[in-house]
Amino acid sequence: MPIYEFLCESCNVVFSFHSFRIDTTTVPACPRCGGGRMVRVPSRFGVGTVARRNGADLPGDGGGPDLDDSGLEREMMRLASEMEGMDENDPRQMAQLVRRMADLTGEPVTPAMEEMIRRLEAGEDPEAVEEALGDEIEAEMEETAGKSGEPARDDGIYPLR
C-alpha cells in the first residue's frame, strides 16, 4: 500500500495519504483546510535514507536505522503488514506503531508525544488521550517546525481519493 506525502501550501503542513494502488497523478484536498493547494513532496523515508547513505547530515535526523533501499523496503513492508493486522481499538498496539514509526524515520519524539505513547501503552482510551494531549502535541509540532524552518507534519494517514 503506497503512502504519498503532500504539502498544503496554505496550512504549511505535510500530510500522508495511502492508496491501494500506485497513483502518481491524484492530488488530494487538504484534510485540514479543504484547500486544493497541495504539492507532492518526497517522503522522509526516501530522503533520509539517501542522505544518510551519501553522508549528509539532515536537520532533525534522529539517527534512525541506516537502511539501504532493500532494507528500507523490507521494514516498510513489515510495518504495513503489521498495520493490516492491527486492532485499531487497542491502544497498546497504537503506541507500538507510533514508536516503530519514530524509530524507522529517526523522527524525534516530543515530550507530549512521549506522554501520549506512555498513556496508550498503559491502555488508556485513545480518544481520551487525544482530548487531553492533542492541542499540546500540535503546538509542539508547530513549534518544532517553526524552529527548523520546515513545515509541520500531520501524524495521520488519509485515504488518497
Q: Terminal Cα separation, in Å?
A: 14 Å
Overall helicity: 40-55%
Q: How many structural domains in the coordinates?
A: 1
Beta-strand content bin: 5-15%
Determine the number of helices (DSSP H or I, runs of at least 4 residues).
5
Q: List SSEs in N-to-C order.
A: EEEHHHHHE
Oligomeric state as shown: single chain
In spatial order, strands of the major sheet run: 3-1-2-4
Cα shape: globular
The largest pleated sheet is described as:
4 strands, mixed
In terms of per-residue confidence, which ranges show pLDDT below 50 for 5 or more consecutive residues? 46-67
Structural class by helix and strand composition: alpha+beta
For the secondary structure, the number of strands is 4
Q: Mean of the pLDDT scores? A: 76
Radius of gyration: 16 Å
What would your notes on this structure say?
The chain is of the alpha+beta class and 161 residues long. The protein has one domain. It contains five helices and four strands; from the N terminus they run E-E-E-H-H-H-H-H-E. It has a four-stranded mixed β-sheet with strand order 3-1-2-4. A hairpin with a 4-residue loop joins strand 1 and strand 2 (13-18). Helix 3 (91-105) packs antiparallel against helix 4 (111-121) and helix 4 (111-121) packs antiparallel against helix 5 (126-148). The radius of gyration is 16 Å and the shape is globular. 13% of the residues are buried.
